[in-house]
Amino acid sequence: MDEPRKHEKFDALIEACRTLEPLPTAVAHPCDESSLSGALQATAARLIKPILVGPRGRIEALAARLKIDISGLELVETPHSHASAAKAVEVVRSGKANALMKGSLHTDELMAEVVHPETGLRTARRVSHVFIMDVPTYHKPLFITDAAVNIFPTLEDKVDIVQNVIELAHALNVPMPKVAILSAVETITSKLPSTIVAAALCKMAERGQITGGVLDGPLALDNAISPEAAAIKNIRSPVAGDADILLVPDLEAGNMLAKELSFLANADAAGIVLGARVPIILTSRADNVRTRMASCAVAALYARACWLAAARARKPED
Question: How far apart (Å, rounded) are the C-alpha atoms in residues 209 and 202?
């Protein structure tokens, strides 16, 4: 009989939050079982302090059907999902919440409010998504970006996407993350534009336009994560065979890679959106409890790191 799968990587993320205060989080439209119960499970684990935003009648009826007690939680009433998205963003802008969590509404609906030029949560950075994956056959957490927000990112977009994920890795105690910039091959050729972009990003990192990580590319997937594959192809690099981060060419490639790992390699995939004023927790109805918890833990750790960085920036020099 096979031994049950262990989840040390995600368990470690959740454990790292034990000493933190629960993260005030606006939960947008938690009107189905997975989104409401997921928020409540994260609340019970002291990962988040939720502010439920949605139709009061639907949420209370759902809680009663699920036998979940929400009497002690703040509930901001809205008439429908679009209003829930707008109101949840407003709650964050007001300072009452330091994170945003997707409920039972479309990602596009929520993100449209996040990136609204006047009432949203935009910063100077490009907004991007990161999967933090617990892959049973890999020796450490694996970050994949961007597989959910930017469809065909430009070179300039990828500078922000890389910087976002590097700073997330720092927050998760990876001080100098190794970034593999993926393509189909590891040689530079004009026939594959992704190889040209990879080379440019590496040079930009050398010139200080990207900081905090070690970049190499183009790399094919095998020599990005397999030391044996890198050795066979005579690739000498601190990144090859030991990547922390996989930067994919486009959304299609990233989405397929993440789902292949989830459904063929039994990986768990926590998800978060970065580049806005606060971390945005994106969960799926297919996510298990551990994955939902890990997504909230990642948001909490990232929010703490942002707060510490802001506090250091405010501290006057001696």
Answer: 10
Closest CA to 116 of 86, 154, 94: 86
The two structure tokens encoding residue 251: 């959304």
Domains and their CATH numbers in the chain: 21-122+276-289 (3.40.50.10950), 126-268 (3.40.718.10)
15-21 long-range contacts (CB < 8 A, ≥24 apart) are 16/173, 16/297, 16/301, 17/46, 17/47, 17/297, 17/300, 17/301, 18/46, 20/300, 20/301, 20/304, 21/49
- Alpha-carbon distance values, 186 to 45, 158, 163, 194, 219 (Å): 43, 18, 22, 10, 4
The answer to whether 162 and 204 are in contact (CB under 8 A) is no
Per-residue pLDDT tens over the stretch 57-94 = 999 999 999 999 999 999 999 999 999 999 999 999 99
Residue with tokens 């439209």: 29
- 22 DSSP 8-state letter: P
Q: Is-contact 241 92, C-beta < 8 A?
A: no
Rounded to whole angstroms, the Cα distance separating 293 from 307 reads: 21
Element containing residue 262 per DSSP (H, E): helix 251-264
Least confident of 199-213, 237-251, 278-292, 294-308: 278-292
**Residue 36 dihedral angles phi and psi, to the nearest 5°:** -70, -45
The closest of 22, 34, 33, 78 to 52, measured between CA atoms, is 78
